[in-house]
Amino acid sequence: MENVVKRAARRAAAPVLGALHLRGRREKHVFADRAPDPQTAVDIFAGQWITAFPPELGVTAGTVNHFDPAVDSRVPWVAAQLGDGLRGRSVLELGPFEGYQTALIEGEGAVSVLAVEGSETAYLKCLIVKELLGLKARFLYGDVLKYLAESSDRFDVVWTSGILYHQTDPVGLLERVAARTDRVFLHTHYVDPDRSTSSSADARFDPKGDVSVDWHGRQLRLHCYRYVDDGTTKGFAGGPRDHALWMERDDIEFVLRELGLSEITYGVVDPGNPAGAAMFLLAVRPGLERARI
User: Fold this and answer.
1) Count of Cβ atoms closer than 10 Å to residue 131 Cβ
2) Backbone phi, psi, residue 249, to 5°
């Protein structure tokens, strides 16, 4: 399972088309010169995909088989932890990226999947995935924090994979997530203050930008991580601002417990991850594992 975290970490360094580039393409009114087929749709983002599509589609895209649950085990792992799985459950997915976990969640029998994506490029990729795989999931384009602040909807599970470490208010994200569910899947990088090995993330930390937050009687240190790119080139994969604030693992667990999500099960803890310490976990309110909303 540790390989799953390493593969997901590599996504942070892989090419992603910036939103400004995409707007430039639309302003030029690009028209197709090929007959409609799956490859024609996928090639709107030619060279920009991380994920390889299921082989039965016969399309060329990325190289990582995230749609294969034998390769990307996060969704089946969560289903196993819940006892009766995801079948019949409502799921809110934050930051679906290329829609592969969306597809796997739906494949596990979720009654509904609502995925909110803040990246214009990733959102449009998700629409291609939805069309090619015939997904029933709904994809919304917009700011995740604003969606959580303005919506009162509750979900059986909130899926937060690869999004916490792109926030400038990570504690606020956890607070808003906890207000919408009793079960949270969290996959994230974190800061390990005791880490003895180096990672590709080390050079991007800027201690001058660190923030100390007094939260529920505990001082949380949020570590400033600065993106190398400005978001306008193919090499950029990050958040909407020029930096993010990473949390320490103990602080993440403290916040989850204080928010009532105190039954925490770790799937992977990988402090030596080359892209920065990483982990995934399931946090549940006590006694509610099998309950439905």
Assistant:
1) 11
2) -55, -45
Asked whether the predicted pLDDT for residue 81 surpasses 80, the reply is yes
Q: Which two tokens stand for residue 78?
A: 């969560």
Residue 36's alpha-carbon distances to 31, 131, 256, in angstroms, are: 12, 12, 47
Q: What is the pLDDT of residues 181-225, one digit of tens each?
A: 999 999 999 999 887 667 778 888 999 999 999 999 999 999 999
Cα Rg, the chain, nearest whole Å: 19
Domain holding 93, by residue range, is 2-284
Q: What CATH number does residue 203 fall under?
A: 3.40.50.150
Residue 52 in domain: yes
pLDDT at 4: 56
pLDDT of residue 99: 97
Structure tokens at 205: 């930390």
Instruction: Please check whether residue 187 is in contact with residue 74, taking contact to mean a CB–CB distance below 8 angstroms.
Output: yes
